[in-house]
């Protein structure tokens, strides 16, 4: 987690919580959750991009096939 963000969070906590090791564990858990969420979002974007490309390619082939069949008629 960004050190500045950690300092800002600690700034608004009671003194006994600011220096607690439990707080560090809590902030690390939040950080891991955000990283996991970001990674999953990136994977989803990639999958969507790949799917879009595949759909575009299939659509192009279908258009070619349709045009080819029209020319035979």
Q: What are its keywords?
A:
about 70 residues; mainly alpha
Tell the overall outline.
rod-shaped
* Secondary structure: helix percent: over 70%
Q: What is the end-to-end distance? A: 65 Å
Radius of gyration, in angstroms, nearest whole number:
26 Å
| Biggest sheet overview | none
What is the residue-averaged pLDDT? 89
Specify the number of helices: 3
Number of strands: 0
Which structural class matches the secondary elements?
mainly alpha
Please give a structural write-up:
The chain has 73 residues and is mainly α. The protein has 3 helices and no strands. It has helices at residues 3-11, 15-18, 21-72. The mean pLDDT is 89.
In short:
The protein has 73 residues and is mostly helical. Helices cover 89% and strands 0% of the residues. The model has no long low-confidence stretch (mean pLDDT 89).
Write the topology of this structure.
Blueprint: H1 3-11, H2 15-18, H3 21-72
